[in-house]
Amino acid sequence: MTHPGEDTSGHRARLRQRLLDGGPDAFLDHELVEYLLTLTIPRRDMKPLARTLLAEFGSIGALLGADPQTLRRVDGLSDAAIAAIKIAEASALRLLRSAVMDRPILSNWQALLDYLHADMAHRATERVRILHLDIKNRLIRDEQVSEGSIDQAALYVRDVVKRALELNSAAIILVHNHPSGDPKPSRADIALTRDVIDACRPLGLSVHDHVIIGTSGHASLKALGLI
Q: What is the pLDDT of residue 97?
């Protein structure tokens, strides 16, 4: 006679073997989430919860990027499971970031966009970060400088310039996200960018771009001809 626990154990063993034999491409999104949950929630069928999570958040990227407080509102998700989701996100971001470090940013632009999208596209609040580059356009510092409400974050031109001088930056890239999902720059985004450029120019500090990240993609003020 086969017990329910044995059924679950057998299913998990088959998932594990598929992962080991076929790699991540052998799994559908809900199976990746399911197997992740099995590592922290023993002796339960995790497939329904995995499907619920993907339906609730819309994608695996949005699930991994959700903050712990939001995840805690999902019935059946323990703190251990939430920690597993966040460590999966952290690992993915480290991998993407490693493709950006120690390489000229401007010739590795897509890798940078992939990293920024993974880190910022699904945030519920607006975040502003500054990428500081050396004379060879390699990333020397990636700093979050502000986190605001759902639709606004403060960025002070004087502080941007001061920090760039402290780090001996040769150039900077401004980045922020739009929690609405639409990366289209606002008038305020354009005006602020031009103010930063005007403050940096006399100091010989270049502002390469201002990139806005949204769930539907990204917008580059430089590519749009706005700076």
A: 85
Taking the C-alpha atoms of residue 131 and residue 156, their distance in angstroms, rounded to an integer, is: 15
Are 87 and 37 a contacting pair, CB within 8 Å? no
Residues 194 and 170 both lie in one domain: yes
Our count of domains for the chain comes to: 2
Residue count of the chain, please give it: 227
- Could you count the other beta carbons within 10 Å of the beta carbon of residue 59? 13
Same domain, 156 and 184: yes
What range does the domain containing 198 cover? 104-220
* Edge-to-edge strand ranges of the sheet holding 127-133: 139-147, 127-133, 171-177, 206-214, 217-220
Q: CA-CA distance, 36 to 50, in Å (whole number)?
A: 9
Burial of 93 (0-12, 13-18, 19+ CB in 10 A): middle
- Give the pLDDT confidence of 5-64 residue by residue, as tens digits: 446 677 777 877 777 777 777 788 888 899 889 888 877 888 899 999 999 998 898 899
Residues with Cβ within 8 Å of 148's Cβ and at least 6 positions away in sequence, in order, are 125, 126, 127, 128, 154
Q: Taking all residues of the chain, what is their mean pLDDT, rounded to a whole number? A: 88
| CATH label of the domain that carries residue 183 | 3.40.140.10
